[in-house]
Amino acid sequence: MKFTHLGTVSIIAMTTALTLSACVPAPSGDGTGLSGTIIGAGASSQQSAQESWVRGFQLANVQATVEYDPIGSGGGRDTFVGGGAVFAASDRAFTVEEIDEEEFVSCVPGTGILEIPAYISPIAIIFNVDRVDSLDLDADTIAAIFTRDIDRWDDSAIAEQNPTVELPNQRITAVHRADDSGTTANFTSYLAEAAPETWKSGSIEKWPIEFGGEAAPQTSGVVDAVTNGTGTIGYADASRAGDLGTVAVKVGDEYVDYSPEAAAAIVDVSPFGEGRGDTDFAVEIDRASTAAGVYPVVLISYLIACNEYISNEDVDVIRGYLDYVISPEGQQAAAAGAGSAPISQRLFDKANAAVAAIK
Predict the structure, then answer these.
(1) What are phi and psi of 137, to 5 degrees?
(2) Domain PBP: where (predicted)?
(3) 113-158 residue pLDDT tens
């Protein structure tokens, strides 16, 4: 299954809202509703979903404006901590230690933060090799490619898993994120758990310089580098995979292609994290799972907000926007616009109560 490749949106000054896709389902309502402007920042992986959510929310609330800057997960978290954005989007949750140590400028001290796994999407392992559309690879082989222990496409480890594919005698160029990236954190988390003997660097947001490869900024940069290169391979949110070749990863005894359904399946077999607040719904993904039909290279991207804001200004808009995002209507809009997997009823019930309590 391939997702539609949406164009890159560059927002620098954030003086206008995102350009919005007309193919996303519009909400019902008379178009009046809430008013005010809120600013969010964070994961570029959420860019397509944010376009869908902003359009749907603003159609129902024509006097409200949501501005979103896809500067990356790390930048979004930093901006939220410093009070430059009233909500953040991040491809990883804050750690328990970060929550204890940070002073969130916009939040009333001691009231904690809300973290909602609002966007669930596979991370596609994308490649550009002439006349090859798909490959079957296990975790150790994927890890060895990105550590450069495997550097030719016709290496026996790749060929043995793809006996019917004509592989070229060509150098592999592995492309990684240049910036601190939640997508990198999720991808390396998969490698660390599923191939611990090969990938020994753990789950990290910043790519290790000792592995070399080609660095590219943000999701769009990785996709462009793989698309415009020869013999390239990289990793990106599946909504941006376009027509590139993709990898089916080995889970148990089968190879599983990425899909929204397979991404949702791995989340449903994974527990919530321990030691977190009542409104912190961080999920501990079981990336080494051998359950049938799960795709473990998955990204859960969070929407992050205060439980209680110091300023009352636009709190109704913040609450209303998050309420739309997690609603069945909002999740359908993201699925249509970005190919993401709607959150489960379990997640919705918990998040809905937490969003309603924002003040």
Answers:
(1) -140, 140
(2) 34-329
(3) 999 999 998 999 999 999 999 999 999 999 999 999 999 999 999 9
- Cα dihedral value 236, 157, 194, 242, nearest 10: 20
Query: pLDDT of 89-116, one tens digit each?
Result: 998 899 999 999 999 999 999 999 999 9
Q: Are 267 and 287 spatial neighbours (Cβ–Cβ below 8 Å)?
A: no
Q: How many CB atoms lie within 10 A of CB 273?
A: 15
Phi and psi dihedrals of 311, rounded to 5? -100, 140
Question: How much is the mean pLDDT over the chain?
Answer: 89
Given CA atoms 179, 41, 227, 295 in this order, what sign does their dihedral have?
A: positive
With b meaning 16 or more CB within 10 Å and e meaning fewer, what string describes 178-195? bbbbbbbbbbbbbbbbbb
- Choice between 244 and 341, residue whose per-residue pLDDT is larger: 244
Domains and CATH numbers, the chain: 35-120+271-282+298-356 (3.40.190.10), 123-263 (3.40.190.10)
What confidence category does residue 32 fall into, taking pLDDT thresholds of 50, 70 and 90? Answer: low
Question: How many alpha carbons fall within 13 Å on the CB side of residue 201?
Answer: 19
Contacts of 256 (CB under 8 A, 6+ apart): 248, 249, 250, 262, 293, 294, 295
Please report which residue ranges of 119-217 form alpha helices under DSSP H: 139-146, 156-159, 182-194
Helix/strand/coil for 294: coil
pLDDT on residue 10:
30
The pair of three-digit structure tokens given for residue 21, joined into one six-digit string: 């896709």
Amino acid in the structure at residue 98: E
Residue 81 contacts residue 102 (beta carbons within 8 Å): yes
Reported as type and span, the H/E element at residue 291 is none
**Rounded distance between C-alpha atoms, residue 145 and residue 158, angstroms:** 10
**Cα 69 from Cα 72, distance rounded (Å):** 8
Average pLDDT over residues 306-323: 96
Q: How many CB atoms lie within 10 A of CB 87?
A: 25
- Name the nearest CA neighbour of 300 among 116, 176, 87, 143: 116
